[in-house]
Amino acid sequence: MTHHFMQLAINKAWQYQGLTYPNPAVGAVILYQDNIIGLQAHQKAGTSHAEVLALVEAFENISEQKIEFDRFDSHKAHNFLQNLPKGFFAECTIYITLEPCSHVGKTPSCASLLEILKPKKVIIALNDPIAGHGGGIQKLQRANIQVEVGSLQKEAKELLEPFLIWQKRAFVLFKLAQTSNGRIGGGYLSSQESLTHVHQMREVCDTLVIGGATVRNDRPTLDCRFTKGKSPNILIYSQQKSFDQEIPLFQIQNREVEVSNNLDLLEKPSFIIIEGGEGMLKAMQTKIDWYLIYQTPKLSTNPLSYSIDKKLSFLHVDKKGIDRMIWSK
Amino acid sequence: MTHHFMQLAINKAWQYQGLTYPNPAVGAVILYQDNIIGLQAHQKAGTSHAEVLALVEAFENISEQKIEFDRFDSHKAHNFLQNLPKGFFAECTIYITLEPCSHVGKTPSCASLLEILKPKKVIIALNDPIAGHGGGIQKLQRANIQVEVGSLQKEAKELLEPFLIWQKRAFVLFKLAQTSNGRIGGGYLSSQESLTHVHQMREVCDTLVIGGATVRNDRPTLDCRFTKGKSPNILIYSQQKSFDQEIPLFQIQNREVEVSNNLDLLEKPSFIIIEGGEGMLKAMQTKIDWYLIYQTPKLSTNPLSYSIDKKLSFLHVDKKGIDRMIWSK
Predict the structure, then answer these.
(1) Which of A102, A189, B60, B65 is the most exposed place for a label (fewest CB within 10 A)?
(2) Coil, strand, or helix at residue B18?
(3) ipTM of the prediction greater than 0.85, yes or no
């Protein structure tokens, strides 16, 4: 009967899939008196974890006050929460897609925070899979908090897959934008939300890989102007080394551009995004872990599409404005 | 804060969109002590409504007993529920996407049932939009049940659109099956769940419209063998009247087949499904209300696709086994 809430937490976490790099995507739900008073996900490495953001939201809903500090500053958030009156969350049930962290990194330990806050019950989908981490559950149990583990474990594992891959080698995401009938290459993103998401993803990845033909034909910029963030380093995947330096992507400050047909960078633990069409899809076929397909609600007569035989599976579908963002592998 | 539960009810209702014809798609959620103990939708006209199915499920979860009667028999279900000990649902909150019916039709009145069961609170997305119906909310209020109306009204209205259309004229649904890269015509449904859903939809519609060229080239059966239901009546949309009577669709018992290029049937309140490819899509373009696109997780080199300029909007995405079912308009 608890699966619906865990599913909400997992869905919330998917909204920030990739964006949390190098951290995992994690979601949390807080229930109090038949109401969902917190539903949050970890958004960005170095900022507050999912359960902390959900607890802050829960405080706001219970107290009907807005907090005034930066909720993404984990030290401020932990400090605020652990100084609330004792028992403030005593009647709350918390669902978390991953075992709360017990170690102190850039952010303080969430398990230690929950130990102090003593909610009624904590339901966790998945144990921390990193060797040497973990211990969060034992901490909660020692504090006599009721803990349940294993709700929607399979779905929570799928959510965590990029994180597990980029521990060992590059996680390779192929990004495509298409119409409902599979036409590409016409700048097919209808919504500002999709465009912003592309730029958020670019900002967080280690390297953006693009095909030489696309660079020559489309003369792209490949920056992060919608998020005003740092533009990604570029690998132009090409046999031929010479490119017109007037192409906008070369004009961007604080970015490295490499032209190479060597893919050794994929061995290194990292997050690599490939943007391209049929050519890159074919060239990179065996290297791609996941596909992120932005689908715009439009049928088009543009003949440009991609033709390749490949079995996929759908992982998650999310809204981005009027578009849908389809995670597949 | 109540939107998450209403959204669950709406999502559940979408699973039976179209299949409830001529009834509306309706979903219901029941909450008790921070748990969802009922989540159900109306499935088929003449059978129990969403809130009744959810109440039966809630009974099973609270009592930890399985009921032994047919839960889809609304008379048996109402009778069972109203004879439960007084106050059985007194601590429950019920979310329903549509005002509970106050009139007695093929099924007894749900508002009258709730009046007896007296749940703590009933949250309703939308008033009954049919003139002369309604009155369910007043019934609940007169019984001193706390009622809230208007949560996710916009989404609940969208869910109800086919129902509102088929009150006045034909609701026309165009069905397509395609790969992730928009290739059609290769029998592109991977999952038995998708195939079964297609047959359920065929069974419930008034007429299945198909293009003459498709009949000649594909020699389809267009039956409901996966649901063992009655195969739909067929309109072959064609100028030319003569067809090889050996084509399987003509061999099906208890079915009418008409060959015509007259679309007067669209004036009549009814539910029409069109199956076809690019030709039918172009011919029917101005007549189509909604699109149901089954998308299979596969990239394909099959060159057959469809090329047409049309702006759509996404309504809902659902799983059907490994496939996704995308409602658009």
Answers:
(1) B65
(2) coil
(3) yes
